[in-house]
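User: Fold this, then the next.

Assistant: Folding the first:
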Amino acid sequence: MANRVKKERRFSKRMQIKLLVLFGFVLLGLVVLLIQIAYINVTKGNTYAKQVLSQNNYDSQTLVARRGEIQDANGRVLAYSEKVYNLVLDCKAINEDADTYLEPTVAVLCEYFGLDELELRKLITNESTANSQYQVLSVKADDEEQYLTADEKEAYEDYIDEYADISSDDLSEAEKTEKKNRSLVTGVSFEEKYIRHYPLGSLASNTIGFANSLGDGIVGLEAYYDEQLQGTNGRIFGYLDEDSDYQTKTIAPENGYTLMTTLDVNIQQIVESVIAEFDETYGDDTDDGTAKHGAANIGVVVMNPNTGGILAMATNQSYDLEDPDSVIYDWYTEDEVEVMKETVITDSSGNETTQYVSTLYDLWGNYCVSDSYEPGSTYKPITIAAALEIGAISANDTFTCDGGEYVTDTEIHCDAYPGAHGLETLEDALVNSCNDALMQIAAKMGVSNFIKYQSLFGFDQKTGIDLPNESAGVVYSTSTMNEVELATCSFGQGLTCTMIQEISAFCAVVNGGYYYQPHVVDKILDEDGAIVKDNSSLLLKQVVSTSTSDILKEYLESVVEEGTGKTTSVSGYRVGGKTGTAEKIDSETGERADGLYLVSFIGAAPINDPEVVIYVVVDEPNVENQASSSYAQMIFKSIAQEVYPYMGIATTAEESTDSDSTTDDTEESVVSNPDMAAPLAENAADDSDTTLVDPTDIAEEE
């Protein structure tokens, strides 16, 4: 049997001794460390604790910034924010000692605010809300009005403190009980916020816009200047200082800026009342719940031509700024609205929404800046001014109108067709609103010069007006404009623009040639009234010379005195302006729509030194024969007759008498080109009264 090899023990006694020594050193180190910690805790622990505690926020409350006001040019408030309060209940605080706090709190809240006792008890004790520290109580019968005013908040606080400073010895037993109950009311607080008010209701609604319940601007000035109006919220912080004393630090809110606009409430009211009268006169009598509308769209802009400031801007889609959703029922029946709410559509960005929401945003929009259209003959003064400026024509030139022009293979008729204006001076061409002469003028200019001045007058770009969703319109470029396009654009068809583009360009024609950026906000003020920004006069460029402007003013006055704009003459005032009639494009076929027209008038006074320009557009007037600018002219005159004296516009030495008739300009008509319209009959109009008259009752003049 083999001898076994005895294995040596691996964990020797020597190793055990070494391990014990090592353990002793570790234990000794721990003892030393614990002694050091204890020493620090005794000598410096309070200091370190204070440093840690001082970094903790024990309370934080938001101080809501007040949204800035919107005012008219005279300081009249158009929009303001009122401080209100939510009544907030801390259920957790009550339930920390429900036996003490529950009954007094419920009793006082139900007695003072008329709350439902059963619902209140359920809110406090229900498992889902018992530990909630934030429950907003509805203190009004109407669920949409849950806020308390500052006076109501103060009255409640006075109620709670009614017996606080009165000795119990001076109270009856009932009053003592009431004092105790009120002192035990717990968990009740007030959350400060602001709600937006529009004291003038629907006035200037398309321009002012509105803010939602969260204080965010949705449309109009409220949206465009949302950042400036909102301000910055402040806070109150609670903390412990280095002595462990509770301290608070307040960062005050920075309230929003005030917008002082160029709008004049009085002029705005005049404009809107005339639009409403037109709607009432020409709107259909229906029993389907919708309001009367005299046209698909009506837009009016009143501008100071020497600053670019908007004095009034209105459409026939005004709405109650306190209840903006209600506008949809002015245009659609309840059944139609219900269908819209159920219909889901996809917008241009691929986002899904309901047709109801999409329609509301359309109705909240501003036709004067967001919709583009062919301006028609109101563009003619711009064509003539540009041609004079470059020397393509002179004031002494004459033109022969034989009823139209052949441009390449396309016959384009004048409004006089099948007649003709014959030999005309340059002034006659504008007075008669002669398409034939304008086409000859454009041909002398050439495409490049026409495009150049089209751009100088701002028709290929947004104006930069301080309102959201501005459109730029559509114009030809030098590479896409040919002879036919040049001919039709000369009298305002073939290009599209917005009302704000057209009136800004026209102002430059009559104010000496100066192009101002149109704007609605004149100044931005901080809460102390200091000017933060001044927009009062933003001169961008001079597009034509003063001499060219003087010639056009003379011609435009003749248009009103003896031409197509006779019915806009206002007794005692020198008025100059231009009519416009444009046949619309059928969106489905892309061709001229039979019988659908957009008519307009733009005018300045006093024309020798303009102080105000009024532009009226009536899109598809609700009449059998839409091809008459008389509908726009009657609105213009009704507004002008009140605005001119209100503004103190200088009168002439002798008051003029209104003319008996006028020839309307239906400028666009082409026979052989399917993209253009057939010739149209002209209407004569007499609008000597301030009351709106029906142009269809006026004798027609060939």
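Now the next one, as you asked:
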Amino acid sequence: MSNQKQRQSTFFGGAAILSLGVIITKIIGALYKIPLANVIGDGGYGYFTTAYNIYSLLLTVSTAGLPVALSKTVSEANTLGRYNQMYRTFRVALAFFFSLGLVSFLVMFALGPQITLAMGNPGALVAVRTLAPAVLFVCCMSAFRGFTQGQGQMAPTAISQIIEALCKLLLGLSLAWFFASQAYQASDLAGAAASLTGEELTAALQEHKEQLSAAGAIAGVTIGTFLGLVFLSSNRFLSDRTNPRVANDTPGPRRAILLNLIKIGIPITIGSSVVSIVTLVDNALILNRLQEALGMTYTQANDLYGTYCTAMALYNLPPSLMIPLTASVLPAVSACKARRDAPGASKIAGSALRMAMIVACPAGVGLCALSTPIMNLLYPGYDLSVTGPCMAVLGIASIFVCIMMLCNSTLQAYGYVNLPIGVMLIGGVVKLGVNYVLVGFEEINVFGASIGTLACFGVVAVLELIIIKRVIPSPPKFAKVFVKPVLASVLMGAGGWAVYQLLYRFLSNSALSSLTAPTQGEMDAALSHASNLAVIPAIAVAAVIYFALVVALGILSKEDLSLMPKGDKLAKLLRAK
């Protein structure tokens, strides 16, 4: 194998390790978030999501660009054998990340009341403060992750992610269930119960329960980030003891290293923060528009927003599968550029975008085609007239988010760190404008937020593809990247939908015919059960259809597969050309 193919195989090997970690993490996350939404209810899920959106913004500001800059800088130093420079860069980054994390923690904890009030959701305060320490822990983790990923070591990141996910599942879900199952008394409301009527007291106790159960769920996240940090720091210590590196290079001054990290990282942070800022403003906008334009109470608006967030949880799944590719693209391309290997850099960028579409398209189309039955299966206690249509639109939107993520990483790897910022600002304005208008219509309400998300990332993805075509040397051939995966995904979605419809009609007719003078509740339960029985085989058939089309259409070529670990054997098995 040539040096270029060896480097590309290493890139895909690292991406494969991270992908495995993400898949395991997302399976655990599904076991956490799906029952969580059913345990804490729509109100509790609204508090949970508000707290998490605030956390995500501060986390993005603190860690989005600098770990990428660290990974890029470490990769270049490691490639050139400048190990002293590499280690000093890590130490400088760790100290800086800790400082950022500490500031973010203090902002989230001390200013929690003001932030949640501005968000239109003051009931989320307990959850926000419970989550605040996690920002500090993740900031420190990001330094370790950037350092190891810059050296092509993806396993520590993957393991730490699994540790975090397991803590969320085991501790967060348990604590949420514990608080949700308690019978709270008027004395738990700190004296406020005396001024409340019977119905008001019942509502206040329910809100109190939802706040505590959301905070319990959040506690699992905080503990998980702490244990993930413990693992990464221990792994770093053992690695230095067992595999010391001898180097004679003279590292640069700490000030110059820090300034270089900031120079690379700040534009990336700004570009990444646009998404989190838009999400946070979107959160506040939806809650306030539901109350101001539609006349809903605070509780009604929060409950409806919590219902909408169940669809958002699934919408985030396909983009999360892109994280391994985006994390691997930048150091891999940077290493090629350090060796002046332009063809290798172009090959890696093109292959990463193609692999992203092979994964993102079927996931997004599947969520769209089977949106309502999937939401009925996973979130049976929620209003399907809201979650189903939202999921259908968000499924397509998730594909554009995946394209945007790979485009951002590619542009950043080639040094165009400022271009994604302007594009994301355009998308953010589009989203907020569409949301403000559509959410204010009673017949649309939160469904307008789904349309705004699709409009935002559709515009961003198209603009960034145009930019890549114009500024990147030897850009990917978009017809090769998009046409076959889109065609296979559409056929897969149609096949899965047809199978579902046939099975659902048969099962629902059988179930209804077995009932004698059924009530409306019994009929609804029978139809829901029939839908659940039909959707699982429909998903399985859709997966088989897509796999068959991937082989039949030659979506993965022999050259593509040869870049992956054990790819030559896989190419022979699939008879790829």
